[in-house]
Design a protein that fits this description.
This protein has ten helices and nine strands. By secondary structure, it is of the alpha/beta class. It folds into two domains: about 45 residues; about 190 residues, Glycoside hydrolase/deacetylase (TIM Barrel, Alpha-Beta Barrel). The strands form two sheets. Strands 2, 3, 4, 7, 8 and 9 form a six-stranded parallel sheet that branches. A three-stranded parallel sheet has the order 1-6-5. Helix 3 packs parallel to helix 9, helix 6 crosses helix 7 and helix 8 packs parallel to helix 9. The longest helix has 23 residues. The structure holds zinc ion (ZN). Zinc ion binds next to loops.
């Protein structure tokens, strides 16, 4: 049972008793159930926005007891920046995982083929990456994931099981679609903030704390990531950690 269902199991009877209890319920009950319901609402909101809470479904966040880390790149492919990232990864013989957006794969299948040819892993990052993705019903979420998986599998010639929710937002619809399709959700333990970082210090700051088992979130669409990827790889190597794909880290 997910943490979401546990929360509903406690919260719903409280709401029913509060509504229908009338004078038969002690006033202290209303106070207590109010506190519990506010706590439950807080848990649900934090569950939606923080994938690491594993609230609606389990996601791979970090692996304990290993000297490996996973570099992950979201939101590509992007002809210019993804290719530069591939070059740098190739120079250091590092394998990574790219969570790609379906419509971008369709527009630039050539770059996806290069990612595959260099031995990197590809995961599903929805078809549209729409701002409204989290409001979609289960059927539409499923369609987006199936559509993108078909393209990934055409490129890789193997079944894809990896999915990363956009912005790390999860909810019951996404959890149901992921479960039905037999996918595995992948989060992160280090968010580089490369989409908003303006300086090397801002980008590298969080990555410097890397330790064995971490999953690092980067974006292969950002020039700042291209500019400082070598330094990120050097930080990993200085700590005697091996950068591997997500599947290798968790299997
Ligand atoms: Zn994204």
């Amino acid at each position: 049972m997910s943490k979401f269902h546990q929360t509903l199991l406690i919260g719903l009877p409280l709401i029913v008793i509060s509504f229908y209890g009338g004078n038969t319920v002690h006033p202290a009950f209303y106070f207590l159930s109010g506190v519990l319901l506010i706590t439950a609402l807080f848990r649900i909101v934090m569950g939606v926005i923080k994938i690491e809470n594993n609230f609606f479904m389990k996601s791979w966040i970090r692996k304990e007891g290993v000297q490996k880390v996973a570099l992950t790149f979201d939101d590509g492919p992007n002809k210019e920046t993804t290719e530069k990232i591939l070059e740098i990864l190739g120079q250091y013989n590092v394998k990574a995982t790219f969570f790609c957006i379906g419509h971008k794969i369709e527009e630039d299948f050539e770059t996806i083929e290069k990612i595959v040819a260099q031995g990197h892993e590809i995961g599903n990052h929805t078809w549209s990456h729409s701002y409204f993705f989290d409001l979609y019903p289960t059927k539409k979420v499923k369609e987006e994931l199936q559509h993108t998986n078909a393209l990934i599998e055409e490129a890789t010639k193997r079944e894809n099981k990896l999915f990363r929710p956009p912005y790390g937002v999860t909810n019951p619809h996404i959890a149901k679609a992921v479960k039905t399709l037999g996918l595995h959700s992948v989060g992160w333990s280090i968010r580089s903030l490369d989409t908003i970082a303006k300086t090397k210090k801002e980008l590298i700051g969080k990555v410097e704390k890397v330790s064995g088992g971490d999953v690092i979130l980067l974006h292969d669409t950002m020039q700042i990531t291209v500019d400082h990827l070598e330094e990120i790889i050097k930080i990993i190597q200085r700590k005697n950690l091996q950068a591997v794909t997500v599947s290798e880290l968790f299997n």
